[in-house]
Specification:
Elements (H helix, E strand, L loop, with lengths): L32 H19 L7 E2 L2 H9 L3 E7 L2 E6 L20 E5 L7 H8 L3 E5 L5 H25 L10 H4 L4 E3 L15 H15 L1 H5 L8 E5 L6 H12 L3 E5 L10 H15 L3 E6 L18 H14 L7 E7 L7 H4 L4 E6 L5 H11 L11 H6 L6 H17 L7 H13 L9 H20 L5 E6 L9 E5 L9 H11 L1 H10 L7 H17 L32 H28 L1 H14 L1 E3 H8 L17
Helix pairs in contact: 6-8, 9-10, 12-14, 14-15, 16-17, 16-18, 16-21, 17-19, 17-20, 18-20, 19-20
InterPro entries: AAA+_ATPase, AAA_lid_3, ATPase_AAA_core, ATPase_AAA_CS, FtsH, P-loop_NTPase, Pept_M41_FtsH_extracell, Peptidase_M41
GO biological process, one term: protein catabolic process
EC number: 3.4.24.-
C-alpha cells in the first residue's frame, strides 16, 4: 500500500521539451513580417479613407439653415462631394438649436450638409452672385478600391484559415488534424517536489520489484554488459486506491528521468485510427526522451480481450490495442524506455498484452497491512497537528481493510471535523467521528416514529448479539440506530487480525449474523420489515459463492460454477451459454436456500435462548441511540472469545 506526502501532492509543473503534449506546447506559429506590414498599410488606408468622408468634416447642419446663411452672404466657400456639400462660414453663426436648448454646443467654422435630390441650380446661382468659391470633388471610389473593400472579409477569412492550418501542422505531415491525433500524454520532469520511495509506505514488495527498474534507468550499461535485459513493461495490479499511480511516479522520481502519464481512456475517440496515431506519437516522444518512463493508467479501458462484444476486430479500441502491442514489440534493446501500466481488472486484459516481451513483470499492490497503515498515517499526518491522545497504532488497528486513499480521506475528515469544532489540534475523537462517517455514512436528519425506532433497535440488536456470541466473526465495535448513509441503523464490526483467507465455519457464522436482524424482527414483532433488504442481498451473494465458487457444499462437490454476469461489459454473455445444465442450476439454488434457511434457523434459536440480552440491547439503543463495546459489556457481559486466531486441527486417522 502506498501513500503520498503533502509535499509530494503539489502538482508538478509540466515541462516544455520537444514532444510534450501540454497546452503550453501548442505551436507558436505567426504571420510573416511582410504580411504584417501589408496589413498595417491596408488598415491605415481604410482609416484615412473613412476619416476624410464629408460627413466627418465640420458640423453637420440642416440644408434649410445653410440656405438662410447663403442668402445673408455668410458662406465663404463651398465644396460639392457627391450628395453632400462642405464649406466654411464667413462668420460662425449662432446654433439654431439653442433656441430650444440653451446647453446646445456652438457651431464650428466648417460645416457639412446633405443636398436634396430635387435641388436645382438655385444654390449655384446664388453662390456665383456672392462671388463665393465653388469646388467639386468626385468621391466615388475607383474600381480597384471597391473590389478591395468588398473582398476584404473574404481575404480575412482566407488568411485566418491559412493561419490555423500553419498552427496545427503536424511535423509528420498530418496537416490540420495534427493536434487531434497527437498523444495527450502529460510530461513531468524531476523537480524539488518529486515523488520518491520515501513517499510510499506499506509497499515493500512493489518497491523491491521496481528497484531494478530504477537501477536500469540510472545505469543501463551495467545490465547490458552481461547481456541482461530489463523488463520492457511492468503491470501494477491491485484494488482502487492502493497507490499504483503513486508507485509509478515514485519510480520515475527515484530514477530522475522524464515521466509521461496518460489514461487508457484518452486513446479512444469517435474516429477509427485516431487512437492508434496517438499511440505512435506517444511512443515516439518517449523514445526521443529516453531514458524515460511511460505510465498508462487504467489500461483495461483499451487493453481488454479482443474479439469480445459486437465490434469485431475493427473497432477503435482494438485498433489502438494492436498498435500498443506493435510499439512494445518495436523497442530496441538499447532503448531505455520502461512502460508501466496500472489496472484493477487484470482478469479482463488481453493475453497478448500480458505475455513476456511486453509486460514481463506483474506486481500486485494490495491493501496495506497494519504496519503499512501506520506508515501511511504518519505520511499523511506530517502537516496535521495532532493531540497527545492520538495513537496512530490504535487507529491503524481499527482500520483493517482500508486502502491508502481511505486512510488519506480518514486524516482529512478528522482535520475537517476538528476545524468545525474550533480545535487547535486533531484528537482521537475527531478520528472516531471520521471513521464512523467513512464506514457507516454521514448522519441523516430523519426523525423515526416510536415503532420504527423500536423495530430498528431490535433489528440492530439481533445483529450485535449474534456477533457478540459467535466466536468466529469479527468483534462488535459500535451499534447505532441513528440513520446513516442509506441505512436506518448500523452494526459496526472491526476485525482484530489481518485476514487473508476465510474458512467455511466463519462464513456460516457470518450468514447467521447477516440474518440476525431479520430473525429478531420476526421473533419480537411477528413480521418482517424492508430493513433487511441489504442483509438478504449480501447473504445471498455469500451463499452463492460458497456453493458455486468455493465448493463448500457436500451435495455439489468440488466444482466451480461461475456466473456469466461476472464481466458483462465484455459482451461475452451474448455468445457464451451457461456451462452447466438446468438440473445443476436447480441444485445450486436449492443448496443456497439450504444454507440461508439453516443460518436463519440458527439465528432464531440463539436469539430465543438469549431473549433477555436482546431486549437489554434494544432498550439501550432506544435510550442512547449509540452503544459502544464497553457499554455492551456492561449491559450483557463480556463477548465470547474470538477463536479465529487459533483453530483446532483434525488429527490424521
Amino acid at each position: 500500500m502506498s501513500s503520498e506526502s503533502p509535499e509530494s501532492q503539489e502538482a508538478q509543473k509540466p515541462s516544455t521539451p520537444p514532444g510534450t503534449r501540454n497546452a503550453e506546447d501548442a505551436p507558436r506559429g505567426g504571420l510573416p513580417i511582410f504580411w504584417l506590414i501589408v496589413l498595417f498599410f491596408v488598415v491605415s488606408y481604410l482609416l484615412y479613407y473613412f476619416q476624410t468622408a464629408p460627413e466627418h468634416q465640420g458640423t453637420e447642419v440642416e440644408y434649410g439653415f445653410f440656405l438662410e446663411q447663403l442668402e445673408e452672404g455668410n458662406v465663404e466657400h463651398v465644396t460639392f462631394q457627391g450628395s453632400r456639400l462642405t464649406g466654411k462660414w464667413e462668420n460662425v453663426p449662432e446654433n439654431p438649436a439653442k433656441e430650444k436648448d440653451a446647453a446646445a454646443p456652438d457651431l464650428e467654422p466648417e460645416f457639412n450638409a446633405e443636398i436634396p435630390l430635387v435641388e436645382d441650380r438655385t444654390v449655384l446661382t446664388e453662390l456665383v452672385k456672392q462671388n463665393s468659391r465653388i469646388r467639386a470633388v468626385n468621391r466615388s471610389p475607383g474600381l480597384l478600391t471597391e473590389v478591395f473593400i468588398y473582398s476584404l472579409p473574404l481575404l480575412v477569412m482566407l488568411g485566418l484559415f491559412i493561419f490555423l492550418m500553419r498552427r496545427s501542422a503536424d511535423p509528420m505531415g498530418s496537416g490540420m488534424f495534427g493536434s487531434f491525433i497527437r498523444s495527450p500524454a502529460k510530461r513531468f520532469r524531476p523537480s524539488e517536489h518529486r515523488n520518491t520511495f520515501d513517499d510510499v509506505a506499506g509497499m515493500e514488495h512493489a518497491k523491491r520489484e521496481l528497484q531494478e527498474v530504477v537501477e536500469f534507468l540510472k545505469d543501463p550499461a551495467k545490465f547490458q554488459r552481461l547481456g541482461a535485459q530489463i523488463p520492457k513493461g511492468v503491470l501494477l495490479m491491485g484494488p482502487p486506491g492502493t497507490g499504483k499511480t503513486l508507485m509509478a511516479r515514485a519510480t520515475a522520481g527515484e530514477a530522475g528521468v522524464p515521466f509521461f502519464s496518460i489514461s487508457g481512456s484518452e486513446f479512444i475517440q469517435m474516429f477509427v485510427g485516431v487512437g492508434a496515431s496517438r499511440v505512435r506519437d506517444m511512443f515516439r516522444t518517449a523514445k526521443e526522451s529516453a531514458p524515460s518512463i511511460l505510465f498508462i493508467d487504467e489500461i483495461d479501458a483499451v487493453g481488454r480481450v479482443r474479439g469480445a462484444g459486437v465490434g469485431g476486430g475493427h473497432d477503435e479500441r482494438e485498433q489502438t490495442l494492436n498498435q500498443i502491442l506493435s510499439e512494445m514489440d518495436g523497442f530496441q534493446q538499447t532503448e531505455a524506455v520502461i512502460v508501466i501500466a496500472a489496472t484493477n481488472r487484470p482478469d479482463v486484459l488481453d493475453p497478448a498484452l500480458l505475455r513476456p516481451g511486453r509486460f514481463d513483470r506483474h506486481v500486485t499492490v494490495e491493501r496495506p497491512s497494519r504496519e503499512g497503515r501506520v506508515g501511511i498515517l504518519k505520511v499523511h499526518c506530517r502537516k496535521v497537528p495532532l493531540s497527545d491522545n492520538v495513537n496512530l497504532e490504535e487507529i491503524a488497528a481499527g482500520t483493517t481493510g482500508f486502502s491508502g486513499a481511505d486512510l488519506k480521506n480518514l486524516v482529512n475528515e478528522a482535520a475537517l471535523n476538528a476545524t468545525r469544532e474550533g480545535k487547535d489540534a486533531v484528537d482521537s475523537e475527531d478520528f472516531d467521528v471520521a471513521r464512523d462517517k467513512i464506514l457507516m455514512g454521514a448522519k441523516r436528519e430523519e426523525i423515526l416514529s416510536e415503532h420504527e425506532r423500536e423495530m430498528t433497535a431490535y433489528h440492530e440488536a439481533g445483529h450485535a448479539l449474534l456477533a457478540w456470541l459467535l466466536p468466529e466473526v469479527d468483534s462488535v465495535f459500535k451499534v447505532t440506530i441513528i440513520p446513516r448513509g442509506r441505512a436506518l441503523g448500523v452494526t459496526q464490526l472491526l476485525p482484530e487480525e489481518e485476514r487473508y483467507s476465510i474458512g467455511e465455519k466463519r462464513l456460516h457464522s457470518e450468514l447467521v449474523v447477516m440474518l440476525g436482524g431479520r430473525a429478531a424482527e420476526k421473533m419480537v414483532f411477528d413480521e418482517y420489515s424492508a430493513n433487511a433488504e441489504d442483509d438478504l442481498k449480501r447473504a445471498t451473494q455469500t451463499a452463492r459463492k460458497m456453493v458455486g465458487y468455493w465448493g463448500m457444499s457436500e451435495v455439489i462437490g468440488p466444482v466451480a460454477f461461475r456466473d456469466m454476469e461476472e464481466h458483462p461489459f465484455l459482451g461475452k454473455e451474448m455468445h457464451e451459454q451457461r456451462k452447466y445444465s438446468e438440473e445443476t442450476a436447480h441444485v445450486i439454488d436449492q443448496e443456497i436456500q439450504r444454507f440461508l434457511n439453516g443460518a436463519h434457523e440458527k439465528a432464531t434459536q440463539i436469539l430465543t435462548e438469549h431473549r433477555e440480552r436482546l431486549d437489554q440491547i434494544a432498550k439501550g439503543l432506544v435510550e442512547k441511540e449509540v452503544l459502544g463495546k464497553d457499554e455492551l459489556t456492561e449491559l450483557i457481559g463480556p463477548a465470547a472469545p474470538r477463536d479465529y486466531l487459533v483453530r483446532p486441527r483434525k488429527e490424521a486417522s
